[in-house]
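note to self — DONT lose this again. spent like an hour looking for the file last time. sequence + predicted structure for the chain T wanted, 426 res
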Amino acid sequence: MLGVSLNSSSIATYDHLTQTIHLKRAEQPDLVRLAGAVNSPGWDAGLVLVEGAYKVLAPLAHETRHWLDMNCSIRGLRTLKAIFELQANPVAGTPPVKTLKQDITLNHFIERYEHRDLAARYPWQVDFSLSMPRAHEQIEHISLCFYGGQDRNRSTILFKSPIYLGSLLETCAVYQEQRDVLPLFLRDGLPHGARGEAEEKALGFLKDPSAPEYHAIIHAVSIAARQPEAVHGIALAAGLCTLLLNMPAQMLKESCRRVEDGLGSRRYGNGLISAAGQMRRMAGVCPEAAIIHSVVNELARRSTAGALPYSTDLIFDLLPFWRKRQDEFFERSHADFVTQIRKIKGPGYFHEAAPALIENNQWLMEQKSLSLTMGGLPNRPPIIFGDGFVLKGADAFEGLVPNCESADNSAAEALLNIQKLDPKGD
């Protein structure tokens, strides 16, 4: 079953075309109760904190990470540039249309699990596949395909999800919930069993076959590293995606070339295929997916002796270009971010916000880690609650919500729909 829009969640969304965060199920009273439980705890503070974590904090962490990756990373800026160009000139056939379809609407090709098929029980097997739509626009993409644990020949795909900007964002956002929200359940005074329930819910989400876009990359990396998704596996996956989101374009290109140069041929079926040629083709379709494919293969090779725990050192070491060059990466990433944001011809509110976005990026890169926390982020965006209440962000973003309220993106949205060319289906 084909997927739906990224902005369809009934819980919370980050809107790519307006850069705004919407917590649909949370209202101002929920935030007030949560603040009271933290600052002036009463007899029911534990219950209120648990409710607030689920209703306010988890979706806020998730969507704020989306905002951060779109506004404060090199890869996000590239997409924002295309968004601004399309908004200024919403005409079919222009370069931004193709770019944005590849970046944010490939979720159309997610094939979700049908629950009546009981063969999709976790754990699954996963593999990479170059996919070309048969009945829609010919947008070639790389998908992660999932198979039943007992399907040794991998004969039946249970569900699959493309690897693209959207799935990188979801990997980081799901991790951010675990990084910044789950530790709250370790506090004293919480209801009995709250921590166990929170961990069970988090694991259940990662094992939900109907939502592959949120965990596809996590599973591929975790399986290769022989790690449970909830601990080192998810940190490895999110760390890798963080590296790719913040990698300057030229360095990403060089990374792909170095991987390609180190590959030869390998046996596949009844003959040999060129692993270097396969890498070259994948890099031409989506360089980030090509790097993920290479890293998963290397993780599998290294984990034959046992599980590989998360570390920033490990992630850098998996790519030949980055061994012993971590400090250089963070410094060059920030310098390139500054260069790229100054080239963007965006609306007035974005230029007013640019210094704050640069400060955020510098703060992130100065952590010199791929395991990011948002605690202490210098400049936070405004948050729009379900009842219309706006939690004020940094002064630099004062123009963001008014711009969102006055913007008409209907023409741009229509141009980004994936077109069906044939009634037979994909």
